[in-house]
Design brief:
The chain contains 10 helices and 5 strands, in the order βαβαβαβαβαααααα. By secondary structure, it is α/β, with parallel strands linked by helices.
Length: about 220
């Protein structure tokens, strides 16, 4: 059972999401929050698998709430998905950098929303290759060019894991990585998972951040 917490200051929006998700087999809406502070509190109480977090709320907004949730070791298994009106909302990038597992626009098709909840609950991110690439483009536009070699923090990775990590940062799916490296998708997924574990990345989104911030890849690289 996938347990979901809804955080949005509009009661009608929450009601719509609740009706949609509650009608799905294997999904349960455990709580609703009208602001970020309440969302963070309820996350501790209910330990949901996924928090659907509106980014613009009064008081404690979704960005601050995401930081609170993702920084709490007791909530390490909780995944935050940002809800926004625009695909490249100015705050979405910082939310993902703070630990969110991805984002959805509020007019996402119902089937895509349901699928996204299930995907994120499994620990996968981001929600689609297209979204991954948009995040990468945004990150690259904000990154400063580096001339230094990759950070020593990546020494825990094997050469193959570094190679796979760079491909993840290029927006490739496991299937595309597998085809490029002539391995099976299962093997590619294993390399991605091992890299995340070794670096302490919550998910694929943070692996992308690690790749850029360590200097493993640089903006403009293909």
């Amino acid at each position: 059972m996938v347990r979901v917490l809804l955080a949005d200051d509009q009661a009608l929006v929450r009601a719509g999401f609740r009706a949609l998700l509650a009608a799905q087999e294997g999904i349960e809406v455990v709580a609703e929050a009208p602001d970020g502070a309440e969302a963070a509190r309820l996350a501790v109480t209910y330990q949901p698998d996924v928090v659907l977090m509106d980014i613009r709320m009064p008081g404690t907004d979704g960005l601050a709430a995401t930081r609170l949730i993702c920084a709490d070791p007791a909530l390490a298994a909780v995944r935050v998905v940002i809800l926004t009106t625009f695909e490249l909302d100015e705050y979405v990038f910082e939310a993902v950098r703070s630990g969110a597992s991805g984002f959805l626009v509020k007019d996402t098709e119902p089937a895509d929303l349901i699928q996204a909840v299930r995907v994120v609950a499994r620990g996968d991110a981001l929600l689609s290759p297209g979204v991954t690439r948009k995040l990468i483009a945004e990150f690259a536009s904000r990154s400063r060019p580096r001339s230094a070699p990759p950070s020593a923090s990546l020494d825990v990775l094997t050469d193959r894991e570094r190679e796979v990590m760079a491909l993840v940062a290029g927006g490739l799916t496991n299937e595309e990585i597998a085809a490029k490296l002539f391995v099976s998708p299962a093997t590619a997924k294993t390399h991605v998972s091992r890299a995340m574990v070794k670096l302490g990345a919550r998910d694929r989104a943070q692996l992308v951040i690690w790749a850029y911030e360590s200097g493993l890849v640089q903006p403009g690289w293909s």
